[in-house]
UniProtKB/TrEMBL annotation:
Gene3D superfamilies: Alpha-ketoglutarate-dependent dioxygenase AlkB-like
GO molecular function: dioxygenase activity
Fe2OG dioxygenase domain location: 309-437
Region of interest called Disordered, as start-end residue ranges on this chain: 42-138, 463-483
Annotated Low complexity bias: 85-102, 110-120
Family matches, as Pfam families: 2OG-FeII_Oxy_2
Skewed-composition ranges (Basic residues): 50-60
A GO BP annotation: DNA alkylation repair
Descriptive protein name: Imidazoleglycerol-phosphate dehydratase
Source species, domain of life: Eukaryota
């Protein structure tokens, strides 16, 4: 789960000269197949080259000076040489974005494109003054894009390919904006405020026992930059108890963990409210063919249609500004395809970041955009079906956060009212409520040659198939079925995950999920 963050941390740790710009680090990783050591060597070389070029620039006249000798007096030459020196890095960003292979992009989704998005499509015009025989004359303003095209080698592959427009990150501050741009919905204030506060105190107390997950990456052990824990809910009355023990064991990066805790009472209360909201929304949304289509798992109340029962929850605590989770999509091993995940935020407000993974066959037509959703105390984001297949999500580090002051005093059994940890808290608690599907229960998970349960992931880069009837496109509210019938995930992969816990050594096992051969279902439509 920590893929991007971990790679970045490792890469930074290998550099002699720190680089704070994540986009630069990500570009280097993409260029080198996620190989941290090669990326580090490359950045060191680039650093040396940059220094040499800077020295050379001092000795020679700038390109601007050469193009427009007369203007060096008319405007400060420092400004112009600064613009000129940016050009090579823009070209490098465009080139690396074009060369990123699908597998790396899946690992590191936002790198080069994000960097390019912020730099290469500015509408700023370069207004160049040219002097002929010493008299200044104005020429037509040239956009940065036009200027790049002039400089580009005519045979370079970029010259023939149209580059899709890129847009800066967008903050989605309202429920309407969230549902218009993403396959998610936002409920800014979901629980009665007393319950939200009680649950915050409960989870802050529980989190004293939560652990940072550890796993192997290449040849070293890395740690998650936040603490986490896993909870299993008791069975609904009248139903059989699903065995969630084994699934819970492998919840995080294949690491065998302690048995899951039961939902504390405040979490159960919150879950019942959230479950009703989620089911209400699912009932109104178009459903995807591979969603769970079985009998309602809870038969408590036959009048109410129950499509989704939160039978497990994962909880995270992010303390301070720097604790985070990198871009990832949630493993589908026990959730199955097109899961719905309900994510509750308590305590300090943090940004939840979403970014679509653009399928390979659309890369030339459109580019991914980053969406930032500020999540206040007591807000709920529902990641609806297709979110895990088409978007990655993250909680990035921030420079600043607002301390959270709970509106009710803490229960004396847990904290004293002056306890700074809760009276003026810098922590965010996140609880993701999930439905572990019976047809994806742990005993049915294929094992790799290492004997360890595989993980299930969608092939996000090649997600279209042409031959199945289907429902709405991700991110489009109330979308009509497209006439091309091209919006369901074609492939999911079962892959070895043993390496995460076995000194980085796995068996590279993979196989395509075959729902018929594996006896999965029932699905909404198949
Ligand atoms: O803290 C959050 O909002 C996201 C947590 C998350 O992505 C996860 O637990 O998989
Ligand atoms: Fe997640």
């Amino acid at each position: 789960m920590e893929d991007t963050d971990t790679l970045l941390a490792l890469l930074s740790s290998l550099l002699d000269h720190p680089i704070s710009d994540h986009a630069v680090l990500l570009d280097a990783l993409v260029k080198h197949d996620g190989n941290v050591e090669k990326a580090a060597r490359y950045l060191s070389r680039e650093n040396m080259r940059g220094k040499r070029q800077a020295q050379k620039r001092k000795r020679t006249a700038s390109l601007d000076d050469w193009l427009s000798p007369c203007t060096s007096e008319a405007s400060p030459s420092g400004t112009r040489s600064k613009n000129t020196s940016k050009l090579p890095s823009k070209r490098a960003a465009a080139a690396s974005s074009a060369s990123a292979k699908s597998v790396q992009d899946d690992l590191i989704p936002s790198s080069s494109t994000r960097r390019a998005s912020s730099s290469s499509h500015g509408k700023t015009s370069r207004e160049t003054s040219i002097s002929l025989s010493g008299s200044p004359c104005k020429v037509k303003p040239v956009t940065n894009n036009e200027f790049m095209n002039i400089l580009r080698h005519p045979n370079s592959s970029n010259s023939s390919k149209p580059v899709p427009p890129k847009f800066p990150p967008l903050t989605l501050g309202t429920p309407v904006l969230v549902s218009d741009h993403t396959p998610c919905t936002l409920h800014p204030s979901i629980l009665p405020s007393e319950l939200a506060c009680r649950l915050f105190y409960t989870m802050m107390n529980e989190s004293r026992d939560w652990k940072r997950n550890k796993w192997w990456l290449f040849d070293r052990v890395v740690e998650s930059p936040h603490r986490t824990s896993f909870y299993a809910r008791g069975p609904a009355s009248g139903t059989e108890s699903p065995d969630l023990q084994e699934a819970a064991q492998y919840w995080y990066n294949g690491r065998p963990t302690a048995p899951p805790s039961a939902f504390p009472p405040a979490m159960e209360e919150a879950c019942e409210i959230i479950e009703r909201v989620v089911n209400g929304e699912m009932g109104r949304r178009k459903r995807f063919p591979l969603e769970w289509g079985g009998a309602p798992p809870d038969i408590d109340n036959p009048a109410e249609v129950i499509l989704w029962r939160a039978n497990v929850a994962a909880a995270n605590r992010y303390e301070g500004t720097k604790e985070s989770v990198g871009f990832h999509s949630d493993q589908l091993t026990n959730l199955g395809p097109y899961p719905t995940i309900a994510s509750l935020s308590l305590g300090t407000s943090r940004v939840f970041r979403l970014r679509e993974v653009i399928p390979s066959n659309e890369k030339d037509k459109r580019s991914a955009r980053t969406y930032n959703i500020p999540l206040q105390h007591n807000s709920l984001v529902i990641m609806h079906a297709s979110c895990q297949e088409t978007f990655k999500h993250a909680v990035p580090p921030q420079n600043t956060i607002d301390l959270f002051h709970p509106p009710f005093p803490p229960p004396p059994s847990l904290f004293s009212p002056e306890d700074v940890e809760v009276a003026s808290s810098n922590s965010r608690i996140n609880i993701t409520f999930r439905f572990y599907r019976p047809d994806y229960r742990a005993e049915l998970t294929p094992r790799c040659r290492c004997g360890v349960p595989c993980i299930l992931r969608p092939d996000m880069k090649n997600r279209y198939t042409d031959n199945k009837a289907t429902s709405g496109t991700s991110g489009e509210r109330n979308a009509e079925p497209p006439s091309t019938k091209k919006d369901i995930v074609a492939k999911y992969w079962w892959t070895c995950y043993a390496g995460a816990q076995n000194e980085g050594k796995g068996c590279n096992f993979w196989k395509v999920m075959d729902v018929t051969a594996e006896g999965r279902g029932p699905f909404v439509e198949i």
